[in-house]
Amino acid sequence: xxxxxxxxxxxxxxxxxxxxxxxxxxxxxxxxxxxxxxxxxxxxxxxxxxxxxxxxxxxxxxxxxxxxxxxxxxxxxxxxxxxxxxxxxxxxxxxxxxxxxxxxxxxxxxxxxxxxxxxxxxxxxxxxxxxxxxxxxxxxxxxxxxxxxxxxxxxxxxxxxxxxxxxxxxxxxxxxxxxxxxxxxxxxxxxxxxxxxxxxxxxxxxxxxxxxxxxxxxxxxxxxxxxxxxxxxxxxxxxxxxxxxxxxxxxxxxxxxxxxxxxxxxxxxxxxxxxxxxxxxxxxxxxxxxxxxxxxxxxxxxxxxxxxxxxxxxxxxxxxxxxxxxxxxxxxxxxxxxxxxxxxxxxxxxxxxxxxxxxxxxxxxxxxxxxxxxxxxxxxxxxxxxxxxxxxxxxxx
Length: 397
Known about the structure:
Blueprint: E1 5-7, E2 14-16, H1 25-35, E3 44-51, E4 58-64, E5 67-68, H2 70-73, E6 80-89, H3 98-107, H4 123-137, H5 141-144, H6 148-151, E7 161-166, E8 171-178, H7 181-198, E9 214-215, H8 219-251, E10 261-269, E11 271-278, E12 281-288, E13 290-292, E14 298-301, E15 308-314, E16 323-325, H9 334-340, H10 343-349, H11 372-377, E17 383-396
Parallel strand pairs: 2-3
Antiparallel strand pairs: 1-2, 3-4, 4-12, 5-9, 6-8, 6-10, 7-8, 7-17, 11-12, 13-16, 14-15, 15-17
Helix pairs in contact: 3-8, 4-8, 7-8
């Protein structure tokens, strides 16, 4: 018996790791639309957290030959996770973690917050990125208007978060989720519009106009690859800078003993495109809400606010194109979650977690997401769990 469900289409097949996990009909239709494109390499893979998304299905892995779909990558280019284990233990934490949360919030701007200038901790990183940004800036006036230096080391909003967690041995971890901020959004919007403009005469033949693409060899294709690679590097750097800021926030708390980071931080994208070799051919792999899980590679699969998260090691499953899920996956829209749950529900679901307990974060309640344990059970052929984390502090964007 295979670990995935096979869905045949009149185009390429879909292999979905979704047994016993709910999948909306409109998400399956999005997957079928992608599978009908003529340049799909072998099949489309769907992870167990799959759900409908803007542009393309969240939780999908799309291998393509000779083309890239900008809307499949989306506008949160390079969004992903970073996590690091410290030498702190649960016994080192104070009874009240409110000051820990406040220290983090003081050092890391959230929501639409930005730094007044490029922070000192990010200056060397920004200098390297800035030299390459000149070519990206020239792509559009709206990209040129952004201030990516001031946003380096900021969290953003939506489902982005910073957490302090405990693992199965009560060791303290720092974990966070963010991407390429405003500049990545502008890059994504610009090239999605350009793809539609370039394919204006052909949009009617596409199963979905959001699947407009650039053909390899065209100038727009080259421009997009340059810009998206820069945005992905910026996103990774943004997480690294924030991680350092959070560690500094913890170090400044007099209630905590001195500590250090153990080992190397795990930093992985889950919204990106890259060139890889699969089944002997060089292809572009777009992971829209999916993490690379090559043999031995470490990744991060976060649960929802109040649920468990996992540090995983990839098994290099060829049929998933060396991929796994990027989280639990939404079960309901943000609007539906706000209608279905109350502040009291949120307080109960996040009991024991130092976090916001107000109406502004109800849409991130665990009940709005799929069961992370079932999601993990559905992909035991894709990854193995290395560490299980449970948050004790959560800062939401």
